[in-house]
């Protein structure tokens, strides 16, 4: 499908909170990693690796199509919101090299 908006393919592995997969939480934090252009989709409670899972990017879109709004999020940037329906707030990650 040529209209896929992300810089990674549909089958790209992405990190997601298990609580989001279980339908318990909503996506509240999105990160587009600067180093490998990877994506992370988390809630506000995921702090440990055991609370995360690896899924295809297309599966995340199926769970919450509103993340399509973030397909143009630049690497090294994040987006946050309090709840589904709120506007995404974008911000650049501070460099750890400083």
Spell out the key features of this protein.
98 residues; alpha+beta; 6-stranded mixed beta sheet; 2 helices; 27% strand
Share of residues in helices: 10-25%
Total number of beta strands: 6
Going by helix content, strand content and strand pairing, the class is: alpha+beta
Could you say which overall geometry the principal axes of the C-alpha atoms support? globular
Largest sheet: 6 strands, mixed
N-end to C-end Cα span: 41 Å
Order of helices and strands: EHEEEHEE
- Integer count of domains: 1
- The helix tally amounts to 2
Provide the gyration radius in Å: 13 Å
Q: Order of strands side by side in the largest beta sheet?
A: 4-1-3-2-5-6
Mean pLDDT: 92
Q: Strand content of the residues, in percent?
A: 25-35%
- Unreliable stretches (pLDDT < 50, length at least 5) are none
Task: Give the topology.
Elements: E1 13-17, H1 18-21, E2 29-32, E3 39-42, E4 52-56, H2 57-63, E5 77-80, E6 89-92
Parallel strand pairs: 1-3
Antiparallel strand pairs: 1-4, 2-3, 2-5, 5-6
Structure write-up:
The chain has helices spanning 18-21, 57-63, and strands spanning 13-17, 29-32, 39-42, 52-56, 77-80, 89-92. By secondary structure, the chain is α+β, with helices and mostly antiparallel strands. Strand 2 and strand 3 form a beta hairpin. The protein has one domain (13-85). It contains two helices and six strands; from the N terminus they run E-H-E-E-E-H-E-E. The protein has a six-stranded mixed beta sheet.
